[in-house]
């Protein structure tokens, strides 16, 4: 039986080789969320953001972390789960030609797609590396800013992921990550659905747990920069719940949120 990481890797590999327009109806593409499921509620529009490249946008995000990342000219920026390079290319505008942007992704097909995109753009200070977030191919104390967009919730070992983020950040460096979190509890049959997991929901944890993991890793000055409730349509939830289960879920006060979080590594 495949583990959670293998499922995510397989699904995102499939997305990488599809037409980007086919991915816009889901935070991770319709084939991994389930037939006919619409998750456009997750994504934010990059259309008016400098550096945006449509060929690098696979419609996989749940925020725009670069808007809040306080990237300065000359910074070294690392994007976790960089996909086809969308957030890296936006970050490159902010860090300028004197800066450096490194994208990390565990999916070979995504790295190949990102490499094609960066060659088309002619950027010499943007590179993509194959690797796991729990064991990044990045030097310790080398990074000014870490960004990530709807990826960390899919990482099985989040404790190790935040430990790695802390390791690569320079003293005084910081992160800004967009992700999916929960308030309350999701029903088990949603949480255990592999397709829903790869669709950015069941891999999510409660917001207080998320913040605690960041704090336990040594990160400080943690701030929620943006929060948006994700309204999952009843017809979608009924793929995983019966009518009674749906009613109970809606009355429970539980919910799914897209957030952008900021944190620092002390100087």
Provide an overview of this structure.
By secondary structure, the protein is α/β, with parallel strands linked by helices. The protein has one domain: Vaccinia Virus protein VP39 (Rossmann fold, 3-Layer(aba) Sandwich), CATH 3.40.50.150. It has ten helices and seven strands. The protein has a seven-stranded mixed beta sheet with strand order 3-2-1-4-5-7-6. The radius of gyration is 18 Å and the shape is globular. The model is unreliable at 23-39 (pLDDT under 50).
Topology:
Layout: H1 4-16, H2 30-33, E1 76-80, H3 86-95, E2 100-105, H4 108-121, E3 126-130, E4 143-149, H5 158-168, E5 169-183, H6 188-191, H7 194-198, H8 207-216, E6 220-230, H9 234-237, H10 243-251, E7 255-264
Parallel strand pairs: 1-2, 1-4, 2-3, 4-5
Antiparallel strand pairs: 5-7, 6-7
Helix pairs in contact: 1-4
Helical/strand content category: alpha/beta
Which radius of gyration do the C-alpha atoms yield? 18 Å
How would the global form be characterised?
Answer: globular
How many β-strand stretches? 7
Domain module count:
1
Question: Quick one: CATH class?
Answer: Alpha Beta
Based on the coordinates given, report the CATH architecture: 3-Layer(aba) Sandwich
- The proportion of residues forming helix, as a percent range, comes to 25-40%
Low-confidence runs of at least 5 consecutive residues: 23-39
Mean pLDDT, all residues: 83
Find the CATH topology.
Rossmann fold
Task: Provide the spatial order of strands within the biggest beta sheet.
Answer: 3-2-1-4-5-7-6
CATH superfamily: Vaccinia Virus protein VP39
